Amino acid sequence: MVSKPTNNRAKAIVDAAAAGGWCVPAMCLYNLEGIIASVRAAEAKKSPLLIQLFPWAVEYADGLLVHAAAEAAKKAKVPVAVHMDHCQSPEMVKRAADLGGFDGIMVDMSHYEKEENLKLTTELTEYCHARGIITEAEPGRINGGEDGVSDTAELEGILTTPEQAQQFISTGIDWLAPAYGNVHGKYGPKGPQLQYDRLRSIRESTKGQVELVLHGAGMEYFGTDNGKLIQENVSYGIAKANINDIVNAPYMDFLQQNAGKVGLTKLIEEATSVMQRETEKCMDWCKSSGQAGSVKMPSVNWVKMPTKPRSDQLEWHPVRASCDAKPEDGGTHPYLGRQVRQTNSGIVVAACVDGR
């Protein structure tokens, strides 16, 4: 089995959250405005942040949005990383891992039968780890209809047991998204029926092996009462909370109410401010505000390795690669042609993530 990544931005952030008793907000974003709003909020609140994209972002923009997110994370004044949520096909997991820009990928094979789920999760986790990317998995079904998630409405929901959690830990994953009454999409008329005793037992049995992730923090229940439900989940050991409509719904409402009433650029700017405001609230609820200094982020050095004598046409292209080469090595790289990328100008650029 490939060793787990150590110098990884997403891992550094979530590890710090787990150790400090707070939770990093993983903002599910769909456009550049969302990325800008989230990073601005993180800098304003001095909060770490995970920019979270769905596979749709890769398919729709052919990776352009991913690289915009990676660039925003790199330039941010606080710890920021980029994660892919609910990657449900082996082909997309590999495509995203090879694309560059992602620090983490959720390998969501929960729509397969259990044994195939475990097998694929193991194989794809090794694929990601070999490229310096951490992984997340979901052992029990959390039924619902979050964007990019296959329709599981007619499948029986399965709550995660400590034994099941250990089976998934054996796949090598870094983060676990347990099912303990939380669901994607709409909750029933009784609202969330969260089994905190179950969550506590999972936390106790997995501590030091994986960190725990909250899915299903929908606006209807988790976005009210000053984020009381989010805070309760954090107190039981949740270190990463996926946030979607809590910030995206107010953004969409603003657009619908103001489209055609103001100029386009003003509409974009003001809608971005709305999302920033809502994101800052989530950071307070997650107790991540003011925690930027508690994260020790790995350094990233960009190493240029020309394959042709055309240095005047060098194009920088951010990629994720494990690197044993020092800048003075003059182009020696063990993963040349596999993990680095060659630009149209014939220039290969590699990211050295160990700070050497």
Give the ordered list of helices and strands: HEHEHHEHEHEHEHEHHEHHEEE
Integer tally of domains: 2
Largest sheet descriptor: 8 strands, parallel, barrel
Overall average residue pLDDT: 85
- CATH superfamily label of the largest domain: Aldolase class I
Q: How many helices in DSSP terms?
A: 12
Percentage of residues assigned to helices: 25-40%
Structural class: alpha/beta
- The appropriate CATH architecture of the largest domain is Alpha-Beta Barrel
What's the CATH C level of the largest domain?
Alpha Beta
Spans where pLDDT lies below 50 across 5 or more residues: 145-156, 301-356
Total strands: the figure is 11
Beta percentage is 5-15%
The CATH topology of the largest domain: TIM Barrel
Give the strand order, joined by hyphens, for the main sheet. 1-2-3-4-5-6-7-8
Distance between the termini: 25 Å
Description:
With about 350 residues, the chain is α/β, with parallel strands linked by helices. It has two domains: about 10-295, Aldolase class I (TIM Barrel, Alpha-Beta Barrel), CATH 3.20.20.70; about 300-350, no CATH class. Helix content is about 40%, strand content about 15%. It has twelve helices and eleven strands. The chain has helices at about 10-20, 30-45, 55-60, 65-75, 90-100, 115-130, 160-170, 195-205, 220, 230-235, 245-260, 265-285; strands at about 25-30, 50-55, 80-85, 105, 135, 175, 210-215, 240-245, 300-305, 340, 345-350. The strands form two sheets. Strands 1-2-3-4-5-6-7-8 form an eight-stranded parallel beta barrel, surrounded by ten helices. It has a three-stranded antiparallel beta sheet with strand order 9-11-10, with no helix packed on it. α2 links the parallel β1 (about 25-30) and β2. α2 (about 30-45) packs parallel to α4 (about 65-75), α7 (about 160-170) packs parallel to α8 and α11 (about 245-260) runs antiparallel to α12. Mean pLDDT is about 85; it is low at about 145-155 and about 300-355.
